[in-house]
Model the fold of this input.
Amino acid sequence: MKITNRILFRNAAWTLGASAGPLLVGVFTIPYLLSGLGQDRFGLLTLVWTIIGYCSLFDLGLGRAVTKIVAERIGHGATEDVPALFWNSVSLLLALGCLGVLVIIALAHTLTETVLNVPKVLQPETLSSLHLLALGIPLVTLSAGLRGFLEAYQSFKRLSIIRMFAGIVGFLGPAAVLPFSHNLSTVVTVLVLARLLMCLAYFILCLSTTPSLITHACLSVSHLRPLLSFGGWVTVSSIASPLMVSMDRLLITGILSLHVLSYYATPQEIVVKLLVIPAAIQTAMFPAFSHTLVQDSHRVQVMYRQGIDAILLTMFPIAIMTVTFAEEGLRLWLGSDFAAHSYKILQLLAIGIFVNSVAHIPHALLQGAGRPDLTAKLHAFELPTYALIAIWFVRSFGIEGAAIAWVFRVTLDAVLLLWLARRCFNMQFSVLRACVGLTLLLVAFALSLMGAH
Done:
């Protein structure tokens, strides 16, 4: 099967819808959650959302490996060993998820009392919440493999419907329990149940998409090596990348206070959600790169340029509107006091999101071409560099310093990924468009600061 532009657009649109639906629900539920839980509990809830995402590191990159290897098999027309690949990955992911349960339970006290700097009055419910959260880790790891399998088979429509439902429940569930309980443990229980339903739906969809998974179910040691080899390098990125994403929140909590975290975490939640657009395009293009590289290298170059152009043209107007109307939007949404503390954070992070969005395509290409070692080494270099800069900036400039450090990190990441794609695969795109867009964003930011004074 040839991956046409129409297929790529359709897959990206469905993936975007799966993320945009919950995002729209979140716009209306976050103010309600913030008001009902209070700033401290809401700050903890944002950390719970972060930890749930970070728990995906326990899959050791196997979800990505499944997509890559199965898509290659489909491209070559050699799918006879797909059932063995599937059941090997499922078995490994369940085992790794159980290991993750033990790790989180063992670290729960340290996270609660030391790392997260939780006030004593909230420590009991935070501890019980982490224990409940640990039980959901096997669901997170298994879902990663099942989702990767479905993406390799281009089953984006049904996959996205399931993800959209689970994402909406992830926002509405906590809001629904607030009239009955403000305890964070109750909220986390709802989030874990949503993950369980999503995982079961993924599994049923895998079996219906590929009936041979039942008729030819087997395990094969020979298939473990390619899964673990690819997944091992992805794991390095899976550890480093989420840590860099959540490091700013942890540093703000540890160096400053949990109370000010909501002033940073809320605008960050807004702009990070904007990444659903480049992430949707990346998700559609990753299996397409793996599939097409074995058939038509020229087509891959065209896909690469079109992917970056689509991201630039989509993200620039969103970023410029966010930078221009950040203060007014936050004032209408969360009030004048909150806007005064957070609007500069929102503006800085919006600039960073625009830069970071461009990096999604070279990242997908490098991993789709079987070079996860390059992205892993890049992230291993970035992690200590970013940690030192972030600590310095948070101590010197508070939450605004955290935002500046994050913008620096994503800019460095984008530049290096584009350079690697060009050096290894001779991939090029119009640098002028990105530079013009970034310049206009910086001008809008400067004008807003002048207007504030």
User: Anything to note?
Assistant: The chain has a mean pLDDT of 80. The CA atoms of residues 267 and 294 lie 42 Å apart. The chain is about 85% helix and 0% strand.
